[in-house]
Structures are given as structure tokens and as C-alpha cells.
């Protein structure tokens, strides 16, 4: 399995350090190195990648600006910074999957890679969901899924083309699908973030999906979800 990586770092020394560290992960392929916000945004908008290493400070903007300007994002992002406050901001606003503080030690880099590679490999392995429907076996692309709805130990899968029933519980899908693309807004609902179009703050929250369906957001999940929606709207 090839893992496509991008390095966004304004200092050449930083680019070299990250490139050298990635040599110890043979499954990783560096498909782009950028030192400025504009080129990084263009590349990430036009190409599918798996992991992005991104410095907080860049030419023409910040690492957070890069994430904000992307219409959709399915890759895992590791923020690089010398200031922990910036890293915490990126994590709290769902811009980062992980962060590394400069100077980057080998043990910390390995820990970060182990965490994000697990998520990337799991997502790449689960690009489709197989379900039985009317005595037939169907393969559903996860990109076509609008949301999952739990019903006891079963899960209803709603796609742009129809509805299916899986014998697996909703927790299974939450565990195997990327948190960058799917978010548990409620005990009963797991949604495809890309398909969420609007959030209404009413009695907790209501999210309007691409097909017009309105789903409840629990009070416990509202704050995190508001940050997600805000980050998408700012792009």
C-alpha cells in the first residue's frame, strides 16, 4: 500500500529533515514539497493525498490558512510548530490530526506516524462498504454515503441513491471510517462531513444534509461540530 505524503514547510532545512525521517517509512511516497500557502492549496485542491505535514508559518499565510481554503479534506494532517499554542488551536478546530513540536525527535515522529498511518491504512482499506439488500450483496462507496443511522444493533446507511441496512452497529462504522470525513453528531447518527451543508443552532443543533434531510446534533457534540462547520465555511 502506497501512502502519498506532502510536505508544506517554508524552510529548506525543515523540508530535508522531514524527508529524511520519512525514509524510514518505505510505504510513504513524497509527492509534493511546498514552501508557500498558494501553491500548497492549489496542489491539495487538485490531488488526492493521504498525509500532509504542514508548518504553522508559511510564505503567504499559515498552515491553518491552507486547511481553511480547501473545500474538502480527506487527508490526515500533522502540524509542525515551535509553539504548542498554535498546535492546540489546530487540534481544537479539527485542522490537525496530530502535531509535532520543533525540534522533531525521532521518537515523537514515530509516534505521530504510527497514529496517522493506522487511520490512513484503515480508510484506504475501507473505501467501500458491503451490505446485503434484498438477497443481493452491494458494494457502497463511502464517498456516496450521506449518513448512518443506528437502530439497535443494526445500522441504516443512507446514500445519494438509496437506503441500505447493515447488521453491523454504528460504532463499527465510526471506528473504521476516517474522523476527517465522518463525524458522530449524535448517539444515533454518523454523518459524512462533506455532505453536510448547513447547521442550525436550535434545541442543541440541526444539521441539514445535501439531500435536505435534517438531523439532530447532540448538545455534547455541538461545540466540536460548530468548529468543523466554521472551518469549512471560512474556506
Question: Could you give the topology of this structure?
Answer:
Layout: E1 3-8, H1 12-22, E2 28-34, H2 37-46, E3 51-55, E4 57-58, E5 61-62, H3 63-68, E6 76-81, H4 84-92, E7 98-101, H5 106-125, E8 128-133, E9 136-141, E10 145-151, E11 154-159, E12 163-166, H6 170-176, E13 182-186, E14 189-192, E15 196-200, E16 205-209, E17 214-217, H7 219-233
Parallel strand pairs: 1-2, 1-3, 3-6, 6-7
Antiparallel strand pairs: 4-5, 8-9, 10-11, 10-14, 11-12, 13-14, 15-16, 16-17
Gross morphology: globular
Output the CATH homologous superfamily of the largest domain: Response regulator
* Percent in helix: 25-40%
Largest sheet: 5 strands, parallel
Structural class: alpha/beta
Q: What is the number of helical segments per DSSP (H or I, 4+ residues)?
A: 7
Top-tier CATH class of the largest domain: Alpha Beta
CATH topology of the largest domain: Rossmann fold
Radius of gyration of CA atoms, rounded to a whole number = 19 Å
Q: How much of the polypeptide forms β-strand, as a percent range?
A: 35-45%
Please report the total strand number as a whole number: 17
- Uncertain spans: none
- In CATH, the architecture of the largest domain is 3-Layer(aba) Sandwich
Largest sheet: spatial strand order: 2-1-3-6-7
Report how far the terminal alpha carbons are from each other. Answer: 31 Å
Amino acid at each position: 500500500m502506497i501512502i502519498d505524503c506532502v510536505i508544506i514547510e517554508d524552510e529548506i532545512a525543515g523540508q530535508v529533515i522531514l524527508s529524511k525521517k520519512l525514509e524510514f517509512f518505505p510505504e510513504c511516497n513524497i509527492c509534493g514539497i511546498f514552501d508557500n500557502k498558494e501553491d500548497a492549496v492549489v496542489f491539495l485542491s487538485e490531488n488526492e493525498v493521504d498525509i500532509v505535514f504542514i508548518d504553522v508559518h508559511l510564505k503567504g499565510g499559515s498552515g491553518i490558512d491552507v486547511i481553511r481554503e480547501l473545500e474538502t479534506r480527506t487527508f490526515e494532517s500533522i502540524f509542525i510548530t515551535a509553539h504548542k499554542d498554535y498546535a492546540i488551536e489546530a487540534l481544537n478546530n479539527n485542522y490537525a490530526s496530530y502535531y509535532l513540536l520543533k525540534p522533531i525527535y525521532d521518537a515523537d515522529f514515530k509516534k505521530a506516524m504510527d497514529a496517522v498511518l493506522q487511520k490512513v491504512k484503515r480508510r484506504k482499506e475501507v473505501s467501500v462498504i458491503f451490505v446485503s439488500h434484498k438477497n443481493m450483496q452491494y458494494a457502497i462507496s463511502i464517498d456516496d454515503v450521506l449518513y448512518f443511522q443506528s437502530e439497535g444493533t443494526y445500522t441504516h446507511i443512507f446514500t445519494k441513491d438509496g437506503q441500505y441496512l447493515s447488521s453491523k452497529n454504528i460504532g463499527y462504522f465510526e471506528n473504521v471510517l476516517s474522523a476527517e470525513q465522518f463525524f458522530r453528531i449524535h448517539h444515533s447518527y454518523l454523518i459524512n462531513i462533506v455532505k453536510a451543508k448547513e447547521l442550525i443552532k436550535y434545541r442543541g443543533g440541526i444539521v441539514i444534509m445535501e439531500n435536505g434531510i435534517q438531523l439532530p446534533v447532540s448538545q455534547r457534540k455541538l461545540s466540536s461540530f460548530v468548529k468543523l462547520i466554521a472551518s469549512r465555511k471560512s474556506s
